[in-house]
Amino acid sequence: MSDSNQQTCGKGLAENSILPAKLGELISAMAENLAVHQKALDLTDQNSRAEDAAYEKLLKDLRQVAAHLSVTANQMADYRDLAMGRHDEKAMMHPRVEDAFEKFVQRKRELLTLLEQTEERDNQLLEMMQANKR
After folding, report:
1. Domain shared by 18 and 64, yes or no
2. Would you tell me which of 13, 37, 80, 123 could form a disulfide with 76, CB atoms 3.0–4.6 Å apart?
3. Is 50 exceeded by the pLDDT of residue 2?
């Protein structure tokens, strides 16, 4: 195997940078969805003003999270050519290494399940919105 094909931690970081990048895009889209919904609020109504205040805080937080995820994704991608450091093989075989990776894989599975569960509801709402435009 040539050096350019050898898997390194840097290449692993770069390959996994897609996860925070896509999560950042998702969070950004969530914020945009809240922002356009917020414009429909009738601020003469007390409940709408409370909703507006909640959205304002959430928008600030969501936009910060999305920005941080985007920066992190870019940093991870930039480490593609990071030289491979020496690793302690005994430490790499410690059960906590496998446990941490197993937890990571499980959380990805849970996220996939969540997205699959909410997809039908979201598609129904989108279809209703599109039907109302016709």
Report:
1. yes
2. 13
3. no
Regarding whether 71 and 91 lie in a shared domain, the answer is no
Q: Which domain holds residue 5?
A: 1-85
Domain count along the chain: 2
Q: Over range 49-63, report the average pLDDT.
A: 98
Q: 3-state class of 94 per DSSP?
A: coil
Q: Cα separation of 74 and 55, whole Å?
A: 28
* Amino acid at the residue 11: K
What pLDDT score does 88 carry?
Answer: 94
Structure token digits, residue 73 = 């994704």
Same domain (yes/no): 47, 91: no
Pick the closest to residue 23 from 99, 87, 115, 134 (CA basis). Answer: 115
Which of the pair, 118 or 2, is modelled with greater confidence? 118
